[in-house]
Design goal:
The chain is α/β, with parallel strands linked by helices. Helix content is about 35%, strand content about 20%. The protein has twelve helices and eleven strands. It has helices at about 10-25, 40-55, 80, 105-115, 125-135, 165-170, 170-175, 190, 200-205, 210-220, 235-245, 290-305, and strands at about 1-10, 25-35, 60-65, 120, 145-150, 185, 195, 235, 250-260, 270-275, 280-285. Helix 1 crosses helix 12 (about 290-305), helix 5 (about 125-135) packs across helix 7 (about 170-175) and helix 9 (about 200-205) packs antiparallel against helix 10. The longest helix has 15 residues, at about 40-55. The termini are close together.
Length: about 325
C-alpha cells in the first residue's frame, strides 16, 4: 500500500484527487495539507475539511499552510474554481477541526514517522514544500517520491508561458526543483489528455451520489457541455495521484527543469531540457487514457458506496 501525503489547494480537480486518494484501496492517505492557491487558504482548508467528512476519511489529519507566495502578491483562480473553490458544489460544514500543527510541521512529522515510505504529492502552488525544505533540507532524502501537478514543456494556462501552480509562486518552485531530489512533473501537456468528456461524464453519473452530486459538477463547472464545440474538462490533479500507484499509465522522459522567476513575459515558465546530462525531473508526456479512466472511475465508484461510518459498501477500504 502506498502512503501518500497530499499538499493541495481544493479546488475542483484537487477535490477529485482527494476522492481518488481515499477511494483507491492501495493508497493509505496519511495526511492532507492545504495552501492558498486556487482560492484563499481559508477556503482551501474549509473545502478539505468538508470533503474529509463528506467522503468519510475522518481519521486523516489536515493542516493549513501558507496563505500566499514566498515573496509575491497572491494570485488565485476563482474564475475557474468559483469563489469558494468547489464550483456549484456545497458540502455540509465540517464538525472536525484542522490540526493545530502547521502544514510544514505535519509534513515533517509524517515523513519522519515512515522514512522512505511516504509519497509526497503537491497539486497546488509549491509554497508549503519550499518552506519545508527551508526548515529541513534533508527531507528530500526521506520521501519515497515527490510528484507535482504543475508546469509544462509547451504552453501555459495562467499566461501563455506559465502553468498556474508554478506561476502562483515561482520562487517556491525554483527552490523545490533545485533541492536535490527527482521531481515528477505532471504538467499540462500530460493532464490535458485526461479529459472528462461526455462519455466519461455518463460513466461518472452511474457512480451514484458521489458521481452526480460531486464528480460531475466538479468536472463541468468552468466549461460548458452545452457548447457545440465542447470537448470536456481536464482533471489535472487526479493525474498526479494516479502516477504514484499506476506509473505504467504514463510514458515519461527525464529532463532538466528550471523555473523562470525574472522574465517579463515568462515568469513561472518551466524551462524543460530533455537533452540535459543532469536531469532533475521525470516528465510524463503521454497518458494511457482508457487505462487512466478505468482506474479513476473504479476508485471513485468505491467511494460512491460510502456511508458515514467511513466504510465503503460495509467493508473497510483498507482491509
Amino acid at each position: 500500500m502506498a502512503k501518500i501525503l497530499l499538499d493541495c489547494d481544493p479546488g475542483l480537480d484537487d477535490a477529485l484527487a482527494l476522492l481518488l486518494a481515499h477511494g483507491d484501496p492501495d493508497i493509505d492517505l496519511v495526511a492532507v495539507t492545504t495552501v492558498g492557491g486556487n482560492v484563499s487558504l481559508a477556503n482551501t482548508t474549509r473545502n478539505a475539511l468538508r470533503l474529509r467528512e463528506y467522503l468519510g476519511f475522518d481519521a486523516v489529519p489536515i493542516a493549513a499552510g501558507a496563505e500566499g507566495p514566498l515573496t509575491r502578491p497572491a494570485a488565485n483562480a476563482e474564475h475557474v474554481h468559483g469563489a469558494e473553490g468547489l464550483g456549484t458544489v456545497r458540502l455540509p460544514e465540517a464538525e472536525l477541526a484542522a490540526s493545530e500543527l502547521s502544514a510544514v510541521d505535519l509534513i515533517i512529522r509524517e515523513i519522519d514517522a515512515a522514512p522512505g515510505e511516504v509519497h509526497l504529492v503537491a497539486t497546488g502552488p509549491l509554497t508549503n514544500i519550499a518552506l519545508t525544505i527551508r526548515r529541513d533540507p534533508s527531507i528530500v532524502e526521506r520521501v519515497a517520491s515527490f510528484v507535482i501537478m504543475g508546469g509544462s514543456f509547451t504552453r501555459g494556462n495562467a499566461t501563455p508561458a506559465a502553468e498556474f501552480n508554478i506561476f502562483a509562486d515561482p520562487e517556491a518552485a525554483e527552490i523545490v526543483f533545485a533541492a536535490g531530489w527527482t521531481v515528477v512533473m505532471v504538467g499540462l501537456d500530460l493532464t490535458l489528455q485526461a479529459i472528462a468528456d461526455a462519455e466519461i461524464l455518463a460513466r461518472m453519473a452511474e457512480l451514484g451520489p458521489v458521481g452526480t452530486d460531486l464528480a460531475v459538477p466538479l468536472a463541468t463547472f468552468w466549461t460548458n457541455p452545452d457548447d457545440a464545440e465542447w470537448r470536456g474538462q481536464a482533471v489535472h490533479d487526479v493525474c498526479a495521484v494516479a502516477h504514484v500507484t499506476h506509473p505504467e499509465l504514463f510514458q515519461s522522459r527525464r529532463a532538466r527543469v528550471e523555473v523562470e522567476t525574472a522574465g517579463h513575459h515568462t515568469t513561472g515558465m518551466t524551462v524543460v531540457d530533455f537533452a540535459s546530462a543532469e536531469p532533475n525531473a521525470i516528465v510524463p508526456v503521454r497518458l494511457d487514457v482508457d487505462g487512466f479512466w478505468d482506474y479513476a472511475l473504479g476508485a471513485w465508484g468505491r467511494v460512491g458506496r460510502v456511508d458515514r461510518a467511513g466504510t465503503i459498501g460495509g467493508v473497510d477500504p483498507r482491509a
